[in-house]
């Protein structure tokens, strides 16, 4: 079953099993309703303004997709982000992914009904992995995104999955977790490096490469982009199929068009605008 306004179209496959398709440039908007927020390592959150205004600008600038993450996910915030998604979907004709506080298939259905195309889950999936399978079966794998907040372990060679904005341990090894999620029907992974998030120091390439080498589903690299070279490395060396950009866009350090043009000049397939 396909629910939502858009579907991912796959073309020829690479030798890793991934589709040879356009690299997606995605704006990530973390929301503590009614504000867009941004922090460093998912902490010290700063209010930036109306998320709808930021989303509208990025859409007009040619962004490929939008991700909304409800950073609070209380009942009040959940109702508010539903309204935000509805308003965005009425004015932005690109895929919208929504995460934060989704605890059931019905929560996901509500978001899809108001215009979301994909739903990202983290905490609820950790507590009830069957939810991944349930959502994939009921809504389609293309709607089911596993959100992974990864922190490098002290020994440095592996990562633990966290939840609650990178504050709560799950005890789950990231690589084992994404493999299980793929087997259960997840269609995509939103992979956030908590260590790099908001730092402008670049993505955790070892993390992306390790996840990409373990699953065949698309990977959105999130956390740490400070320039277009970081994106190029995440794609070329890490194996990411999409790049989530937050601070660079929110603080006007780069425009969507500049990122698209630079990635194209670096030899990546990007959507023509």
Structure, explained:
With 273 residues, the chain is an alpha/beta fold. The chain has a single domain (24-265), classed as Aldolase class I (TIM Barrel, Alpha-Beta Barrel), CATH 3.20.20. It contains ten helices and twelve strands. It has helices spanning 51-61, 75-91, 105-113, 123-127, 130-139, 174-184, 205-212, 228-238, 247-250, 256-265; strands at residues 24-32, 35-40, 43-49, 65-70, 96-99, 118-121, 144-152, 159-163, 168-173, 188-193, 219-222, 242-245. An eight-stranded parallel beta barrel has the order 1-4-5-6-7-10-11-12, surrounded by eight helices. α1 (51-61) runs parallel beside α2 and α7 (205-212) packs parallel to α8 (228-238). The radius of gyration is 17 Å and the shape is globular. Residues 7-17 have low confidence and may be disordered.
**Which term fits the overall shape?**
globular
Strand order of the largest sheet: 1-4-5-6-7-10-11-12
Taken as a percent bin, the fraction of beta residues is 25-35%
Q: If helices are DSSP runs of H or I spanning 4 or more residues, what is the number of helices?
A: 10
Q: Report the mean per-residue pLDDT as an integer.
A: 90
In the CATH hierarchy, what is the architecture at level 2? Alpha-Beta Barrel
Largest sheet: 8 strands, parallel, barrel
Specify the structural class. alpha/beta
Number of domains: 1
Q: Output the CATH homologous superfamily.
A: Aldolase class I
What is the ordering of alpha helices and beta strands?
EEEHEHEHEHHEEEHEHEHEHH
Helix content bin: 25-40%
Low-confidence region ranges: 7-17
Query: What is the CA-based Rg, rounded?
Result: 17 Å
> What is the CATH topology descriptor?
TIM Barrel
Measured between the Cα atoms of the first and last residue, the distance is: 30 Å
In the CATH scheme, the class would be Alpha Beta
Number of strands: 12
């Amino acid at each position: 079953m396909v629910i939502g306004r858009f579907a991912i179209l796959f073309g020829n496959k690479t030798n890793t099993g991934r589709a040879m398709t356009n690299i997606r440039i995605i704006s990530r908007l973390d929301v503590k309703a009614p504000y867009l927020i941004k922090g460093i390592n998912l902490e010290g959150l700063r209010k930036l303004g109306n998320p709808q205004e930021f989303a509208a600008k990025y859409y007009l600038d040619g962004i490929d997709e939008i991700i909304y993450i409800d950073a609070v996910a209380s009942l009040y915030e959940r109702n508010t982000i539903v309204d935000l998604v509805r308003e965005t979907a009425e004015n932005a004709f690109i895929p919208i992914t929504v995460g934060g506080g989704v605890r059931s298939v019905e929560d996901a259905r509500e978001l899809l009904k108001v215009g979301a195309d994909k739903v990202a889950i983290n905490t609820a999936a950790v507590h009830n992995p069957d939810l991944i399978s349930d959502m994939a079966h009921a809504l389609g794998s293309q709607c089911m995104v596993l959100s992974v907040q990864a922190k490098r372990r002290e020994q440095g060679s592996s990562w633990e999955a966290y939840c609650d904005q990178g504050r709560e341990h799950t005890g789950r090894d990231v690589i084992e977790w994404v493999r299980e999620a793929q087997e259960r029907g997840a269609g995509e992974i939103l992979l956030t490096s908590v260590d790099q998030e908001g730092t402008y120091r670049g993505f955790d390439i070892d993390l992306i490469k390790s996840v990409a080498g373990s699953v065949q589903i698309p990977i959105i690299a999130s956390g740490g982009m400070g320039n277009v070279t970081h994106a190029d490395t995440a794609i070329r060396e890490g194996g990411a199929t999409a790049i989530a950009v937050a601070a660079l866009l929110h603080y006007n350090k780069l425009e969507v068009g500049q990122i698209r043009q630079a990635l194209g000049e670096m030899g990546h397939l990007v959507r023509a605008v």
